[in-house]
Predict the structure.
Amino acid sequence: MVTGVMNADGKSLPARAVYLMSKSDIAQKKAKEIEKWRTRGISGTVSAVNAQTNQITIEIKGLMGSTKTVMTPKPEAKFMRYAADSVKWSEAKVSSFSEVAVGDTVRALGDKSADGTSFSAEEVVSGSFPTMAGTIKSIDVELKEVVITDLQTKKDVTVSFADVSLMKRFPAEFAERLTGGGMGQGGQRPAGQGGAPQGNPSAGGNPAGGQGQPGGMRPGGGMGGPRGGIDEMIERFPTITATDLKVGEQIGVLSTKSNGSGKIKAIKLLAGVEPFIRMAQMAAAASGGGRGQGSQVGLSIPGLDGIGTP
């Protein structure tokens, strides 16, 4: 990095200072930053904002259910907000407590309480990124677009994934296990139905009675932290392209907000999500909520609403 005053012709810059950092030093610095957010960070969805107490309640979803943490910013806490179409930290803007809203995705760095129910935040980055689940109706490989039928609205939506930051597929057997297909403890199947435990937390919400976590996993994921387990797990899944998608299969999308044109920009796209959608629909039917509850479907897919480490 060079500092100085540009000459009037705009073609040369007499240097006042030159700063040099090796590629390895940059990599080490980035690794330390990522580790800091992994070990001292939380990530989830804002479920409540209390301006009077200066507190934000965050719902943290894990593989085996969800927990809630009340976050209180420290006096000198730094707030940032993601751009409308990006989860890149470099594109985030300076923000404030007042911009955080219910439904936002948020990641924070700070100190957790021993029981995980409270969190003192030093840095907070938030953004508004809707989730959607739907069935692929058509695929345009060249344009990198798919048309899906939104499971909630039943309307067709064009999803562009030309600039998607993550595009993965859940391995089929693994997804089935997460929704109860291979889980031998901790869940009960709905009467007259097979394949998944009743009220499985992966389908959104808590199991009936809210007691216990199957498989010995901690609430909120239990695989290296509240969110770290899910996000790190998905990073290891196979990366896919347009040619790997098929008409008729279902996908989950984290996207930019719709501008009313019927077209959205995917930030994250997950395929192989049929078991999670099926479980959400079963849970909705069992609770009398009807069939194909889109909001339940979108929120039921592990890792879909996660945002990257700054």
